[in-house]
Task: inverse folding
């Protein structure tokens, strides 16, 4: 694997702060750090919108459980877009995926897609650590049919765990070059970040971006 330059790696990062105890001052610090590091975007909770920054703004909906009615996920996404979000990372109903109800998975993703149409970027968080391989494939296919732009491994809050190279590789094999793949959850070293990219990730969700870019070990998301 060829090592990425700092600027290259930074441009794959959604610099993330989704802790429930985060304050507006914490978010302001995140924005300034993202600008300093040159990350692709920031990812913040919808209650923190709108924000002022020179990088792209991502947020979440149905977070972190995914056990929200599709209409509520859609409304949350629409509200975030109205407040300036460029990207929305939605949590799918993992129970539907585990039950093999992929038509229902597709329907809820489509509801959010319609509420947040292009050019808004829609990422679908599938909680890959809680799914079997066939379920990962099924939800990725449903996300593509519903018009999503990315599939994403994890919220970082599920007890089953976060991103794994195997899941990223399987997601990339399923969506090809038609969708992006975002690895997030538990990526705390530069080695781990670059391994996710090598496995097929085209975006990384990191809360310890500065430490990782400097070659250290981060904590958190």
Result:
């Amino acid at each position: 694997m060829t090592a990425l330059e700092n600027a290259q790696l930074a441009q794959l990062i959604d610099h993330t702060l989704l802790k429930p105890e985060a304050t507006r001052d914490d978010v302001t610090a995140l924005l300034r750090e993202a600008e300093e590091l040159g990350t692709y975007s920031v990812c913040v909770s919808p209650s923190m919108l709108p924000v002022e920054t020179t990088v792209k703004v991502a947020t979440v909906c149905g977070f972190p459980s995914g056990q929200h009615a599709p209409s509520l996920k859609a409304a949350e996404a629409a509200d975030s877009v109205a407040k300036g979000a460029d990207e929305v990372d939605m949590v799918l109903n993992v129970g539907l995926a585990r039950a093999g109800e992929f038509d229902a998975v597709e329907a809820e993703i489509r509801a959010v897609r319609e509420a947040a149409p292009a050019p808004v970027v829609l990422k679908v968080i599938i909680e890959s650590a809680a799914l079997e391989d066939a379920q990962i494939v099924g939800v990725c296919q449903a996300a593509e049919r519903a018009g999503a732009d990315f599939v994403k491994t994890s919220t970082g809050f599920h007890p089953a765990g976060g991103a794994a190279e195997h899941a990223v590789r399987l997601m990339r094999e399923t969506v090809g070059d038609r969708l992006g793949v975002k690895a997030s959850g538990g990526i705390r070293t530069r080695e781990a970040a670059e391994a996710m990219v090598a496995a097929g990730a085209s975006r990384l969700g990191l809360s310890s971006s500065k430490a990782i870019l400097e070659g250290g070990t981060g904590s958190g998301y």
